[in-house]
Amino acid sequence: MRTASVIARYLAGVIFLVMGLNGFLNFIPFPPPAGVAGQFMGALYVSHYLWVIFAFQVIAGVLLLLNRYVPLAVAVLAPVIVNILTFHALMAPSGLPLALFVAVLWAAIFIDVRPAFSGLFQSRLEPRA
Question: How far apart (Å, rounded) are the C-alpha atoms in residues 71 and 116?
Fold first, then answer.
């Protein structure tokens, strides 16, 4: 499983670094989505909210590629991926396969760094002595 996690980390790192940089530099032009998805993306663009999301993607992608602070990168990318999945599931289903692929990559990385999150999955807080 370690090898799969390393491959997933590099793939996710490249994907998020390239797509995050593309948000700033627009070197891979995408046609604007139509309908509600276009309105939603327009609002995110006009409000500059996308800049924050792209910055998170770039930072997390670099951390994954450098193998530094990987649990932090996983924690930063979790809400980004949830929003990507929700956007594609509800408004732009054509991008759903890539969104699911990225979610699977994230899960493979998470499984490898799961011990870093062990405190989050405790049902009770044990009092300190």
Answer: 7
